[in-house]
Amino acid sequence: MENEQIHNLLKFISYPEDLRKLTLNELPLVCEELRQDIIKELSCNPGHFAASLGVVELTVALHYVYNTPYDRIVWDVGHQAYAHKILTGRREVFSTNRKFKGIRPFPSPEESEYDTFTCGHASNSISAALGMAVAAQKKGDRKRHVIAVIGDGSMSGGLAFEGLNNASSTPNNLLIILNDNNMSIDRSVGGMKEYLFNLTTSNRYNRLRFEASKMLFKMGVLNESRRKSLIRFANSLKSMLAQQQNIFEGMNIRYFGPINGHDVKNLTRILHDIKDMQGPKILHLHTIKGKGFEPAEKQATLWHAPGKFDPQTGERFVANTNGMPPLFQEVFGNTLVELASMNDKIIGVTPAMPTGCSMNILMDKMPDKAFDVGIAEGHAVTFSGGMAKDGLIPFCNIYSSFMQRAYDNIIHDVAIQKLHVIFCLDRAGLVGEDGPTHHGVFDMAYLRPIPNLTIASPLDEHELRRMMYTAQLPDKGPFVIRYPRGRGSLTDWECPLEEIPVGKGRKLTDGNEIAVITIGPIGKAAAEAIDMATKEGISIAHYDLRYLKPLDEELLHEVGRQFKKVITVEDGVIKGGMGSAVLEFMSDNNYYPHVKRIGIPDLFIEHGSVQELHSLCEIDAPAICKAIIQMHNQEV
């Protein structure tokens, strides 16, 4: 840790207008206090750690130079916005960050006017900020400044390049700040990372160019059309002299940098200098993820979201998990290695989350069989499709909510061609403290209408292993396996790898009054509820559907013939999900039981622990038991 002395400036800063009352020389002290405040708070209230430490100086400089919230700062993802929250009216409640009913995990306009745009997924900042910049011009609000803050990991996302392309051809005064820490969550990958790392330019050159352009505009020699022509000429000349092409200036976007992103005084001066320049601009900063906390600087991936730790020593408080069931992610990672050792066609693909999804296990043991493609979900899907077209079997692991960005790729590049790609949707269901941008509750509803897909969800770790084994067998085509974040239920998770026939569910318990149909691990909560209701004298049959598509029609015919009362339970949205599929089947086959659907309501669910959110959505065991009892008492 750097300097631990506290100067007590922060307690007088409730909003950025208070920050602007300070002198330039006091800003480093504010940064020091902010950094210590974040370290202290997150040591006992876990959250996203290293990313926010890396942008403390940038955050202070932005709010010092710009008239926020009138001026717009658009953050890309929200991992880096804790200092922003503290400086914008939430210092006193920051201890509630990520807690149920507390402040939100990521910036949200519903929480603060300083949070200009929702940010949870990567790469949207440039497009959103460009829209705001154009809106300001169209409304004649020419004093408003708009700034997009994007990390180099997010620059690998296709949407970022779409935004850059449009920014280069649309009249605007957007400032794009490229926070280049050589990282995303895991180490950033690809040519863009290498390009940013090596990119250089002259600060003196930019100062001279700026001063010359101002003078020429005042003299009437330079207008907007001539300015663009001169930019192209100057860029060509600079590229020839430097023997290096600048991709941004090649798009007619002014480039400044790279500069030290931790020198707050110099950064503030530069922001002042370029603040009123006309046209789109990029300011390239070099920062250190985890800056100011040595353990995080050395192991930024580990300290992305480290849990509780000792702020003095950096010792992480890791819970004793001996004797506990493994994470679903660990079962996935180890099973993938097992399958890859049996089938040399198997390849692993992940978009920037190898540690989170445990693809790193395959990367460590068989590095030639795994690819981290960066924050690029659409590419991950189509890349997998290309490999499958020529005979490989990709296991493409993408978080459920992130897969939403690759919807067309699933349809156009995999499903239509019936390609043998296995999509492993990690973080399915309610994920907890990351909130509505990360809950994986839409996948069953948005995937179910797509032809040629097989969609499965395992009840437990044994079922996950067997579904992964089944998916890689010949002639299975596009195959989706969805499973939740966190621990399973079995300590003896290793089991023989056996095929589960596609479209075949199973009856877990017998009964004759009510049928409960579940899919996936939420079936464990339903089983607990059934045990509770059985003690009340109710006879309940429990069916584990296993496959959402194709449905087990034999199982559903049995339910339709034998039961007048049916309850469906899922951890996805009930509009268009598994319950809807059951209702459609019953109607299509002239069965008319009374069906109660239990699942995620038609709302964006807030953040909190998974247990709290299951209770909120009434998909936990007590709520399911209550629904069973109520249905039992109803006349049909």
UniProtKB/TrEMBL annotation:
Residue ranges of domain Transketolase-like pyrimidine-binding in the record: 326-491
The protein's annotated pathway: Metabolic intermediate biosynthesis; 1-deoxy-D-xylulose 5-phosphate biosynthesis; 1-deoxy-D-xylulose 5-phosphate from D-glyceraldehyde 3-phosphate and pyruvate: step 1/1
Cofactor(s) for this UniProt protein: Mg(2+); thiamine diphosphate
PANTHER family: 1-D-DEOXYXYLULOSE 5-PHOSPHATE SYNTHASE-RELATED, 1-DEOXY-D-XYLULOSE-5-PHOSPHATE SYNTHASE, CHLOROPLASTIC
Residue spans crossing the bilayer: none
InterPro entries recorded: Dxylulose-5-P_synthase, THDP-binding, Transketo_C/PFOR_II, Transketolase-like_Pyr-bd, Transketolase_BS, Transketolase_C
Region forming the signal peptide: none
Protein known as: 1-deoxy-D-xylulose-5-phosphate synthase
Family: Belongs to the transketolase family. DXPS subfamily.
Pfam families with a match to the protein in the record: DXP_synthase_N, Transket_pyr, Transketolase_C
An example Gene Ontology molecular-function term: 1-deoxy-D-xylulose-5-phosphate synthase activity
Keyword Transferase: yes
GO biological process, one term: thiamine biosynthetic process
Catalytic activity, as annotated: D-glyceraldehyde 3-phosphate + pyruvate + H(+) = 1-deoxy-D-xylulose 5-phosphate + CO2
SUPFAM superfamilies listed in its UniProt record: Thiamin diphosphate-binding fold (THDP-binding), TK C-terminal domain-like
Gene3D superfamilies per the UniProt record, alphabetical: 3.40.50.920, 3.40.50.970
Originating organism: Bacteroides graminisolvens DSM 19988 = JCM 15093
Record note on quaternary structure: Homodimer.
Gene expressing this chain: dxs
Entry keyword set: Isoprene biosynthesis, Magnesium, Metal-binding, Thiamine biosynthesis, Thiamine pyrophosphate, Transferase
Magnesium keyword on record: yes
Cofactor comment text: Binds 1 Mg(2+) ion per subunit.
CDD domains the record matches: TPP_DXS, TPP_PYR_DXS_TK_like
NCBIfam families tied to this protein: dxs, PRK05444.2-2
Annotated binding of Mg(2+), by residue: 152, 181
One GO cellular component, as annotated: cytosol
